[in-house]
């Protein structure tokens, strides 16, 4: 007996904005992990163009509401903390948060939101914000692919930062 069978599959493809993760330990046992996808500049103007200043315009994916930048690509960028920390001087409880940003030419708002399992920022809900801080971007050497990393590490603090194109967006993390 012969049974004809046709199968169609989707070939594995490399995502244009690949997933990445960075972890830093601070103090005795505080673990900070940032998970994100890293888009490339690809010759484009990023700040104020591809990533607009202010909130992105409402569209069909955002239920007609303006929304912040997802601070990466694809799924939410997330930060996971196993202990309470202070971000820019304000307490943030242990947990996993999505990171969103509202860029401007001078100061940026970084949002830590309790909804951490979304695609982008399209369904961002301000009422789920755990913390908002304002930081100042700094000029930096050109970086083709968006990255998150840590610097200025001490026994009880670290500076986390996003680095893409010619900007770094740093935020101070201190142990309580």
From TrEMBL:
<dbReference type="InterPro" id="IPR021314">
    <property type="entry name" value="DUF2911"/>
</dbReference>
<protein>
    <recommendedName>
        <fullName>DUF2911 domain-containing protein</fullName>
    </recommendedName>
</protein>
<dbReference type="Pfam" id="PF11138">
    <property type="entry name" value="DUF2911"/>
</dbReference>
